[in-house]
Design goal:
It is found in: Cytoplasm. By secondary structure, this protein is α/β, with parallel strands linked by helices. 43% of the residues lie in helices and 13% in strands. The chain has an 8-stranded parallel beta barrel, surrounded by 5 helices. Helix 12 (264-269) links the parallel strand 7 and strand 8 (274-277). Bound molecules: phosphoenolpyruvate and magnesium ion.
């Protein structure tokens, strides 16, 4: 391990001109938690909560979910932890869900769609998440959103779960933020409306690339087929950030693009607030951030022009 990278630990992530950018960790479960802490993550920007549901024969119960979520928020010692609700379907399934066989699972009954249809599963997860929120700084993130109505329905269910907890005198945090993943072209195009309803956005470029470019992310040749930093995707990111900021909410980018050091500068020029990357990428991204000077407005302007092409 490079000693220079190790020396970044404990230091602020600031550009040379003083802009602070938080760099969080993407984790798949408790197994990655140590690596996130070891690499000095600013928090957890994305916990893919599917891990507790996969590779088993029946649903995890509320206690098991609660135990795991509580461990994460406690181990992060007050740092922000964003837990994404179940994103099952498509590439991630388990037999006991008894999902219908679908021709195109990536376009099928998955993620928030499934949670809204199978509300028993969703409520159990939300109860465990809310209970864990009493032990640290927990935010809830909803995947694969395409419609404002989905957010209304999620909020409605969340209110019901909170009422149940209150009536049983079970503690939960009173400042749990709710965010949505922006990972479908639909969510991008209505991001101005979504921004009014939630506390933050997280851009999932893995799915956003798949659905925008019509290229299956599971295709073994994916890496070779996807044009790197496609203008369509960059423009979408810019639109989402502008819409979010005009409504006063922050935007994280948690797809693989966030770890592409050749894109760090343009992402920051587009005013992204934070990045969330796999733990081993945290320090290299931080080193890149520290090397940038964004104060040259002319340079920033021309970088943005390059994205917008006018
Ligand atoms: C994404 O889609 O970019 C993302 C971060 O989520 P996942 O890779 O789990 O779909
Ligand atoms: Mg995704």
């Amino acid at each position: 391990k490079s000693e220079l990278l190790q020396r970044l630990k404990g230091r602020k992530n600031v550009t040379r001109d003083g802009r602070e950018i938080e760099v969080y960790a993407n984790i798949g479960g408790l197994a990655d938690l140590e690596s996130a802490i070891e690499n000095d993550a600013g928090g957890i920007g994305l916990l893919r909560s599917e891990f507790l549901y996969l590779q088993r024969d029946s649903f995890p119960d509320e206690e098991e979910l609660f135990y795991n979520y509580r461990r994460v928020v406690e181990d992060m010692k007050g740092k922000r932890v964003v837990i994404r609700t179940l994103d099952i379907g498509a590439d991630k399934t388990a037999d006991y869900f008894n999902l219908d066989k679908e021709e195109n699972p990536a376009l099928g009954m998955r993620a928030v769609r499934l949670c809204l249809r199978r509300q028993d599963i969703f409520k159990t997860q939300l109860r465990a998440l809310l209970r864990a929120s009493a032990y640290g700084k927990l935010s809830i993130l909803i995947p694969m959103v395409i419609d404002v109505d989905e957010v209304y329905r999620v909020k409605d269910i969340m209110h019901k779960v909170k009422d149940e907890l209150l009536s049983k005198h079970i503690a939960f945090g009173n400042d749990v933020e709710l965010g949505v993943m922006i990972e479908t072209p639909a969510a991008v195009m209505i991001s101005d409306l979504l921004a009014r309803e939630v506390d933050f956005f997280s851009i999932g470029t893995n799915d956003l690339e798949q659905y925008t470019l019509a290229i299956d992310r599971q295709n073994p040749n994916y890496e070779n087929v996807v044009p790197p930093n496609h203008l369509a995707v960059l423009r979408m990111i810019k639109l989402v950030v502008d819409n979010a900021h005009s409504k006063g909410i922050k935007v994280c980018l948690c797809g693989e693009m966030g770890a592409d050091l050749s894109l760090t500068e343009i992402l920051l020029d587009m005013q992204l607030d934070s990045l969330s990357v796999a733990p081993p990428q945290i320090l290299p991204v931080r080193r890149m951030i520290r090397s940038l000077n964004l104060s040259d407005r002319r340079q920033v302007h021309s970088n943005i022009q390059r994205v917008l092409h006018y």
